[in-house]
Each structure stands twice: as C-alpha cells, then as structure tokens.
Amino acid sequence: PRLAPELASRPPAQAMSGRQSMLAAVRRALASAAPLDPSSAPRLAPRALGELVRPGALFPYGVVVVARRSASGGRAGVAAASYKGPFATAIPSKEEIMRLASRHLAVISGGDGAADAGARAKGGGGSGLHLRALRYLVAALAAAEVALWASSQATAPAAEEQTVSNWSGTQHVDCARYAQPESADALARAVEWAHTHRRRLRPAGSALSPNGAAFNAEGMISLALLDELVRVDLDAMTVTTQAGARVLELVEKLRPHGLTLANYASIREQQIGGFTQVGAHGTGARIPPLDETVTSLALVTPGRGRVRLSEDDDDPETFRMARCAVGSLGVATEVTLRCVPAHRLVERTWTATRKEVEKNHDTWLKEHRHIRYMWIPHTDTVVVVGSNPLAASAKVPKPTSACKSEAKKVEPMVKLLKEVAPGVDATGMGFGQLRDELLKVNPLDLEHVKRCNAAEAEFWRRNAGTRCDWSDQILGFDCGGEQHVYEIAFRTGDDVDSNTGADLAYMKELLAMIEREGIPAPAPIEQRWSAGSKSPLSPATNDGHDPSKPGLHSWIGIIMYLPSPDPESRAAITEAFKSYAKKEEAALGDKYGIRTHWAKIELPEGDEERREARKRIESRYPGVDRFRKIRAELDPKGVLGNNLIEGLLGDPERVLRPGQSRSDWMAPGEYVEAALRWARRARAGHGA
Q: Is the separation of the CB atoms in 284 and 530 below 8 Å?
C-alpha cells in the first residue's frame, strides 16, 4: 500500500524502467511489515512476474535468484504501457519470448538495467551458458547431499532412540541415537563416524550427574558393555580396567588381590570413566580427588583416533588435561588407577555445636584420614563423621550406638509427621523416607523446614556411635531421595598443617546468609576435604600454585529435595533452589574463588548469564586456554561435547537451539577430508 502512491505518481515508463526498478519495487514491498491491500492495484497478470527465491540461498553475497516464466499465461490484450500497481510488470516482447526458454533461472546481480540490455543486444550467449552451469551446479549439489545423507545412514553406528534420566530424577533427555558398542573397535568406528559427519555423540557413564553432564539429544555413546578388568599389577599397585566398569564391581574384583581404591564418593554405581572425568573426590584432607590417582589413559579421539596418555609422557600436559575433562577430549576406553592395600575403617559419628567445631576443627582434620561435617541449617547442630584405618592385627570391634532401637532413633521425626500429616502411616519408614514425607507437607515454608531440621538434628544425636567395615562400605552412604545439589570447592591452604581457616569462614558466612535471607534450606549442608590435583580442570586443581605442596581444598554442597511427584511442587522447588545457589555464588564466589563440581554445574539460560559464567570459569581455572588448544587437536569439531561443554568451556557459537543439529553446519570440505582418509586407510590395508 505504501508503494502504490509512489508508483501511481510516476509516468509508467519511469515507474518500470527495466527489470531492476521492478525488482526494487518488489523488494520494498516484501520488506514492508504491512500486509498488501488487494484494492491498492488492479488485478495482476498471474504469470508475468517470476517467483522470487530466498536471497543468499545459493550465493553468499546477496545475489538474488529469480525464476522467470514467459507471459503466455498473462492477461491478453493488455498494452505494455497499461500496467500499474506494486506487482504489475510489462509483458515480455516477442523477441524475448522466442529467445528465452519457457522457464529458466536468471541471476540478477544488482547491476545497471541499461548494461543488462546492452549485453542482451550483443547476443546474450554468455547468460545462457551461466544459467546452464548454475542448473548443473544445483543438480550436483543436490545429488551430493543425497549421497552424503545415504553414506551417513549406511555407516552410522548401531543405536536406538532412548529416554535417559539421571539418578536424582532432575534431568531427562530423549536421545535420538543412543549407541552401546560392544568392543573398543566398534567404539572407534562410532567416534570416527561422528567426526566425519559432524554428529554429536556424547560419552555417557551411569547418568548419575545431577546436572546431566553427559546428556545430549542428538546422540550419546554408553560404555556400559565395556566393563572388563584388564589387569592388576601387584608390584606397581595399579589396576587397569575398561572405562565402563562400575566402581562397586571393580572393588569386588580387586578384593581377592588385597587391593582397593584410595577413596570413594558417596555413590558407588558410577562407571570408572565418568567417576574420574568429573573429578569425583570423596573426603580426606591428605587424599586427592580420584582423577589424580589415574596414571594412564586410553582414549578414542575424533581428531587423532586412538591415543594412550600417561604421567610418563614427555609432555604430560595433555594427559593431565584429559583425565578430568568431562569427556570432552576423548572417550576413555581404559583407565589405570593407583590402588592401596585393602583395609577396614572404624567410623565414629557424633554431634557438636558450631562453637565446638570451631574449637576442635584443626585437630579433627589432622587426626582423621576421612572426615566430613553435616551442618544442619537453622539449628546449632553439626554432625561429624570421622574414620581411621583399623590396625591389621586388631580385632574388628562391634558397632555401638547411643540408642539401640531404630524406632527410638527416628521417634522425633515420626512424632512430627503425625502432627503435620496425620493421614500418613509412618510404620516401617526409615530415616530417608521420613524426611521426604515431612518435607512433602510444605517444602518451601521456612518455619516448617526449621521444624524438620530440628527433628533431624535430634535423630543424629540419638544415632551417635561407631561401626567398622571395609573402606568402600564405610565411605559410601545414602544421599537421600530425588534432589537438587550444588557443590563447590575452593583452596583453603597448602596442606592440612597450614589451613588458612577459609573452610570454616565460608561455612559461617553461608549459614548467616541462609538465616538472613530466610532460605528454607533443608539438612544437611555437607562439607568435605581433599588434597589437590595436578589436573588443570579439576575443581581442586593446584594449577597456579606451588607444585611441591599437596594443597588443601574444601568441598561444600547445598541441597533441596524433591519429595513429591507433583509437577507444580517440583517446579517451585527447582526455582527456589536456583535462587539459593545464585545467592551463594553472588555472596561468596569471588571472595573464595569457588569452582563448581562438573557434575553439579548448570548452564545458565540467558545469554548474559552464560557470558558471566564463562568469565568466572576462565578467571578461576588458569588452564582453560590450554584446554581449548588441546581440544582443537583432539576434537576439532566438538562432536563429543554438548551445550553444557560448549556454553561454559568450548565455543559458545556451538550451543544448539532446540531442534537444531550439528549437521546443520556441515562443511563440504570435511566430507572430502573423510573420503581421502578412507582411501588412504583402504590402500594401506590392501598393501598389507
């Protein structure tokens, strides 16, 4: 409509002086946000105007491709000078009709209309040649696309569609290609396929990570079928295992050899590959995270194929980076870990006040091989769990407890449940079930959560006592039901003898923030310790510090449970937990230089929040630039990544929108590269 007055005010010859003026009018009309008004111009000749193809579809510099038709279907008897309206056009002359095919592609480059006319007057043979060449090019590209798609499908690894959920029930993914190779060779072929066709194939362990660190909708590759024990070296005190072996299975295979792992996280269902790749840590001020116990690593990488890395390499930097890289540098097929002699631990559980912890903390930290605190918010109770090895010659002691009866231990929680939810039958419920039922009543009500925490504190006072068992049985413990967890680590000294006190200072500030902000924080807030790691991406990395010092790091995790299946309740708790974690980061993150556990960090939703998260990681991990350089060699196309990896560590331009595939930005040259690689491999095999 807004073009109609402009065109109507001009003489017809001036309004449509050449194809370029006509196309300019068309472009302006298409650019207008207002809908076209049919009454603004007379009826158009239906086939006189060509079809405008999307600009830039085939040509990168704004070239417009127009498919024109002859005017044989136009309005008969319309004089050349009688056309009007924004979309009207003159009927081509007889010479034009005879010279041009009934339908062809014409490339309009935006040049001068008079120059085009001059070129036509000289014969125009070049134009026809160009058009034929263009048709052949389009046909060739279409054929290549079909061939490449067929090649991709024919060589794809065996896989199935599968919905995967994490252990805590907070993350789910509908994976279009879930592969489970049965051999290292099959795994290598799958990774090569992903690299060739630029398809994401994210390594997946047991899917235990609270943040779904391994989840990827386009493709995942599980190592669950690669779970064999490779060898045990008693002289070197090491074990080599396929990466898909679960921790609890490996422990049983080590037991006949009199060996065990140096430390354990709370859950033992992890696969060894994921166990080390995310920097799992356990507790023990003199014991490093599990990645530091890895001495050798076999990887299948997209960029370099199969590689074996170790601490003995001339340049161990790549090895140290790859053993804790959240699966983004290669798929681990074999892992060699240092072991320790199998041993029993005597564990003691007791409660203390905050002042008692502050007074005795240094002594307790030094006296116990393993120790952890469970702070109960909105109370003055701290649960302390410490353990030490039982002497080889000592008799296994019997367990002790402040209360002999389990019913007596949970009595405070049962009593509260009868008061707030009289319709719930608590018969036979254990501690974890009772906590879930209590919180389910009103999980975000501050006063209610305070009462639940007070009942839990009383349970732990009655549960004080000792027990003795093998180290893997003692160090693993029940983490409760479905939950959100946010865990961070920070340096608090060069070793256990030179603790700066930052560990307790952090907890003091965190508890004060919870009380000041009125956060309905359930129990517990768990605090653990570890020595440092040489892995640059470990949250407990010693990168940038004196390498001769083991380092002392504190790990602190906050929690909110999801006791109800009700979607509205879960959504409300999720939002409250996100706010809780953000407040912790804002209040304490920069001050203490915290690093979030790789299995518990979340990718922010907003672009600005993501940029801030990347900046924090870059400022707190000195090795990020080195990681990106190594990744450019081992996984140059990022096929082992996902949005979490790309958004926080990798290339933010690779973060995919919902429904987008990595293949959307496939470069044809990469197919040529793959063809040459296959040809070289075939020739080498023929020569052999």
A: yes
